[in-house]
Amino acid sequence: MRKGATALVLVLAGLWTTSAALANAPERSLRPSARAVTSQLILPRETTVPVYYNASIRPIPRPSAGLTGSSESAQYIVRAASLPMIAVRIASSVPGVARSLRPVARPRDIAVLARNQSQSPVRVASSEPAETAPRRETRRDRRQRTRQTRQGSVCGDRSIRGQEISSIRGRLRGCGVSSPVRITEIDGVSLTQPATINCETARALKTWINNGVRPAVGRLGGGVSSLRVIAHYSCRTRNNQPGARVSEHGRGKAVDIAAINLNNGSSLTVLTGWRDRTQRRVLRRIHSSACGPFGTVLGPDADRHHRDHFHLDTARHRGGSYCR
């Protein structure tokens, strides 16, 4: 009986305490209510470093007017998917602000590039092409370069331009050329007509042009342009005289020059300039300088057959060059 009475007393005491607590309970629930979303913007804050947000935030396109040329800091308003409107003022000194925030389109062949880079043992960080050492010139390259340089040259001299032709057999005894060449230009000085001669005569012409003609002319008329050729190979007798000996023209050893053409269009003509006050000194120097390179040099003072040209041939005489 005592135990049952004690239990009853404890139950009654608990009920009394609970009823007292319920009597002081608030009328409303203590659960906090949801924060009201306000449309008012938070005051901007100044920062000097770029502000980074999570991946769900996308920038609003830059305004087309109002910001260009302004000294004030540009404002970018960013809306978050689960956040209210946030205004952030980014200082103009922050790097990257002047560029567009729109990402560059990904290359179409990015998968191929990535696969190639993963397979390559060496990766190049720079997009610039790597410098390669120049390839050393081989013997084959030198031969090809020499062949290209000599193309159009004859007599083993690059400055003597022309072509090799087949041997010439003359109709008269003593005529003919075993290894003739047809010369068009010698060391930059062209011939007014191709001259068929042998290589010995071609080399003598080059020596005469460089050591005699060019120094004698100098800067007169802008220098030497061409030689007026009026005769070269011809199977005939000397001065076309019947019964005379075969001319050196018939052996490919002679060439006749009637004038020295200059770069300004003027000419030093043997026929009119040999006794002209302005040209005779130059023409006589040119005539005398041919003695040595050529074995025979004939001019207007030799005879009437050479009053209008210089006859030059490479025939050798016992007493040396014959110049008149």
From TrEMBL:
Signal peptide: 1-23
Residues in Extensin-like C-terminal domain copies: 168-324
Location of region: Disordered: 113-160
InterPro entries: Extensin-like_C
Keyword RNA-binding among UniProt keywords: no
Domain of life of the native organism: Bacteria
One Pfam family cited in the UniProt record for this chain: Extensin-like_C
Record carries keyword Signal: yes
Keywords linked to the UniProt accession: Signal
Name of the molecule in the record: Extensin family protein
Organism: Pseudohalocynthiibacter aestuariivivens
